[in-house]
């Protein structure tokens, strides 16, 4: 509740500021408010008058040894949905996708999902053990791990429950809440295969059980082919140490696969000959179908996209004229080849412009510059990955998988934009 009030108050102040700025451009009436403001004859005090920040010396270099965002960005934070979970220690908050651009999620804004709170582990007391079907059981310190060859890769992590509240209809009003269980980070770590090869996997060793050192001691069964393919044991995110929330000092990176498998505070890897069928892969993260059967081991995250702006938390404030539609697209199968945007609820599609680097199993940024005539819009985006997978409509998903599901909802999202620029989560039937 407090969050919502804070957002509303802030939106009002911002709108007031923008209205006063817009008066001048309204006189000229061109599509680009920036251009019209420059052409205006009326004096703008922000240009003609000396402001406090021009006049007085600012803080010195010692004011903020670990930098933080501008005070004017205080609204850009992870937020939770209070009714979603009973207790903050086994809960989730969401990445503010509507306030970000490019493809990197800043460390302090990466959504958090944990089942036993955030473990606080001193790196010199952390150990990683490899046991089970190996030639030599091993225990590594953090120092040991840092002596293996390391690699850097940009990957998205998406919780399989992202958009899960939307299976039965539009519910949460903001892409932060409908799609914010995703983050995209440059990881520095050691390929998992180097550590496994050091221990020596026995021929019968076909599965791997990573385990977390937190009170939830999260475990999942991972097939050995994936473990030896592109998994990393990571200790840095976006250049600095992992945040405690993200598993400091060590987490497993399982590119393209559901977030639950990316065990944080990684302390043990057990090699086995069959999957363990623990809680997180049976009662959770298994998808109940309409006929009562269940889809298990639905590891890969399918191709998905969402328009982040405009969206319910980021309405159009500038009125008619040139507006920039932007959003994110990703696929657990590889890169995103194309994103289409529709402003009329999927009747007509235009190919959007993909920008920023395109990495496999990483989010992609798309833009669509658009002249808005003030009409009601039904905005949608549809991503296609490099394997030719096309993001489905929500109805197509429901047809295939029923409505019992929580997980793996990669359906096309619709935002209704009203003539006043406000936006709402809706569905086209
Ligand atoms: N040890 C441990 N690892 C964990 C979890 C946990 O509770 N404990 N949560 C999992 C789930 S369900 C998800 S979606 C991701 C979330 O990663 P993040 O907190 O970095 O966003 O971590 C996974 N790894
Ligand atoms: Mo998750």
Describe the model:
- With 429 residues, the protein is α+β, with helices and mostly antiparallel strands.
- The protein folds into 2 domains: 208 residues, Oxidoreductase, molybdopterin-binding domain (Sulfite Oxidase, Chain A, domain 2), CATH 3.90.420; 123 residues, Sandwich (Immunoglobulin-like), CATH 2.60.40.
- Helices cover 17% and strands 27% of the residues.
- The strands form 6 sheets. Strands 4-3-12-7-8 form a 5-stranded mixed beta sheet. Strands 5, 6, 9, 10 and 11 form a 5-stranded antiparallel beta sheet that branches.
- The protein is globular and about 80 Å long.
- It starts with a helix and ends with a strand.
- The chain binds the ligand Nc1nc2c(c(=O)[nH]1)N[C@H]1C(S)=C(S)[C@@H](COP(=O)(O)O)O[C@H]1N2 and molybdenum atom.
- The ligand Nc1nc2c(c(=O)[nH]1)N[C@H]1C(S)=C(S)[C@@H](COP(=O)(O)O)O[C@H]1N2 binds next to strand 2.
By CATH, the architecture of the largest domain is named Alpha-Beta Complex
Identify the strand order in the major beta sheet.
Answer: 4-3-12-7-8
Oligomer: single chain
According to CATH, the homologous superfamily of the largest domain is Oxidoreductase, molybdopterin-binding domain
Ligand list: the ligand Nc1nc2c(c(=O)[nH]1)N[C@H]1C(S)=C(S)[C@@H](COP(=O)(O)O)O[C@H]1N2, molybdenum atom
Distance between the termini: 31 Å
What do we call the CATH topology of the largest domain? Sulfite Oxidase, Chain A, domain 2
Q: Mean pLDDT across all residues, rounded?
A: 91
Largest sheet: 5 strands, mixed
Shape verdict: globular
Task: Tell me the strand percentage band.
Answer: 25-35%
Count of helical segments?
9
Whole-number count of domains: 2
Briefly note the structural class of the backbone.
alpha+beta
Tally the beta strands.
23
**Spans of 5+ residues with little confidence (pLDDT < 50)?**
1-35
Give the fraction of residues assigned to helices.
Answer: 10-25%
Which CATH class of the largest domain is shown?
Alpha Beta
- Over the alpha carbons, how many angstroms does the gyration radius reach? 24 Å
